[in-house]
Amino acid sequence: MRNFDTTLYFITDSTGFSEEEFLRRTEEALKGGATILQLREKEKTTREYISLAEKVHTLTKKYNVPLIIDDRVDVALAMCAEGVHLGQSDMPISTARKILGDDFIIGATTKTVPQALEAYKQGADYLGVGAIYPTTTKVKTVLTSTETLDAICKAVPIPVNAIGGLNKNNIQVIEGIDIAGFCVVSAIMKAANPKGETEILLKLAKDLTN
Questions:
Q1: What's the confidence (pLDDT) of residue 138?
Q2: What's this model's pTM, rounded to 2 decimal places?
Q3: What phi-psi label fits residue 123: left (phi over 0), alpha (psi between -120 and 50 degrees) or beta?
């Protein structure tokens, strides 16, 4: 398995941006210190997804940050990403592991302790747990309590990241929970200064996880 750091896990959202502006904001987040990046595209065709992923991968390699592809094992494999992130309705983690091998990073979305234990058993390398708050993305979310987040962190030996509507103004809600880091979408993508916002969030993430 590759080494990776989920302290500040940046998830992209290209909604409302030209490709040029999307790539600019993505690079600004990388400059600001995002430690891992997930490309999430729910609406694009496979060909469009691969094309954009290749452009994003050029950026992530420049900053030595792993690129994770959301949902699509085929896209991750086709363009040699570092990993894939799978939800509860996506390909089973054990199947993805057989296809991708041990060197690929495989993350999983979980909302309960049983789901977390099953994901770990099947070979997940890290977990995303949430949503802690309602989100503004197009992804359908079910809220997860901080008590459940804490229980999941204690139940599995792999990194656990909080996700869902988190930003610099509300991140204190997960203080004291043994997370590996947290995931951010809108707080960076919609920021007036994506690089500066990323730097602030990275500092907060390090404070929370140290």
A1: 53
A2: 0.95
A3: left
